[in-house]
Amino acid sequence: MAKNDAGSRVRDALRIDGELPDPGSTPVGPGKKPKALAKLDGAGERLSGLQESLYAEGAGGGTRSVLLVLQGMDTSGKGGTVSHVLGLVNPMGVRYAGFKAPTAAERRHHYLWRIRKQLPSAGQIGVFDRSHYEDILVPRVTGLLTAAERRRRYTEINAFEKELADAGTTVVKVFLHLSPEEQLKRLKARLETPEKHWKYNPGDLEARSHWPAYQEAYADIFKRTSTGGAPWYAVPADHKWYRNWAVAELLIETLAELKPRFPEPDYDVDAELAKLKGVGVPS
Fold first, then answer.
1. Element (DSSP H or E) covering residue 82
2. Helix or strand or coil: residue 107?
3. Which residues pair with 71 in a beta bridge?
4. For the purposes of burial, counting CB atoms within 10 Å of the CB of 191, is it exposed (0-12), middle (13-18) or buried (19 or more)?
5. For the segment 77-96, what is each residue's pLDDT rounded down to a tens digit?
6. Are the C-beta atoms of 88 and 255 separated by less than 8 Å?
7. Whether 255 contacts 50, CB under 8 Å
8. Phi, psi of 132 (to 5 degrees)
9. Residue 150: Cβ within 10 Å count
10. Sorting pLDDT into bands at 50, 70 and 90, what band is 7?
11. Is residue 110 within 8 Å of 117, Cβ to Cβ?
């Protein structure tokens, strides 16, 4: 993809190409919370307009869609990103799917089976809160996946994402990069705030104890599955305000490059306007 400052500034800055940015940094865009919040308001208007035109394009027979894949350690803000960023657009044009540990019924199928069932339709922005990458991460860290099986899954996932691209779905893969120090603060906040108790999962501490192994697994995923058609982006996530702004901008740049178009009407606009001139108020 050719670079241009107006259309790929944030994607170019956050694309994973070697070492990840510091989780507390702001590598592109606003460096302070007030400015980021103000920019997010403007981003919401642009994102909403682009999403509406994509949705209308799909309703008019178009085949394109966007799939936002959100990955990250516990408390990195996958749900918060969905709320603050996708909450800016018409929910009719969004398809959300959250993936937890597969059920017994799901385990009887290929691991991509349940993923395919949740793909966005034409005109939609799909959002995966965790994704098919969990089927490499968790089995690898827990020792349930051999190196050969892992390599096979990398090949399958790359082929799957190419299949999506060929069918008109642009995949935007985002790693919400959180520091262990910030995660500890957020876990503590969940326990100290009664309204957040429902968010706390004792199993989060087990995953935290394997932090280095998860980081190693993610590094391998980025190396093996970041492709020209579906690259990975690292969004520093210690600052929620920066995380939300960055993900919104990634979606805006992606949609702007797609240039979705409102479909041409299949009727005569002038003729319909003429008809309205003779229409009175119902009595």
1. helix 78-85
2. helix
3. 175
4. exposed
5. 999 999 999 999 999 999 99
6. no
7. yes
8. -65, -15
9. 17
10. confident
11. no
Distance between CA 32 and CA 203 in Å, rounded? 34
Structure confidence at residue 152 as a pLDDT band (50, 70, 90): very high
* Contact indicator for 209, 234 with CB cutoff of 8 Å: no
Residue 4 has pLDDT above 50, yes or no: no
Tokens of 111: 């691991």
| Of 157, 138, 152, the residue nearest 214 (C-alpha) | 138
Which three-class secondary structure state does DSSP give residue 111?
coil
Instruction: Single out the residue of 9, 23, 50 nearest to residue 185, CA to CA.
Output: 23
How far are the Cα atoms of 9, 12, 68, 231 from residue 253, in angstroms, in the given order? 8, 10, 13, 14
Q: Taking 60 as the threshold, does the pLDDT of residue 6 lie above it?
A: no
- 3-class state of residue 164 by DSSP: helix
Amino acid at 54: L
What is the pLDDT of the chain when averaged over all its residues? 95
How far is the C-alpha of 209 from the C-alpha of 212, rounded, in Å? 8
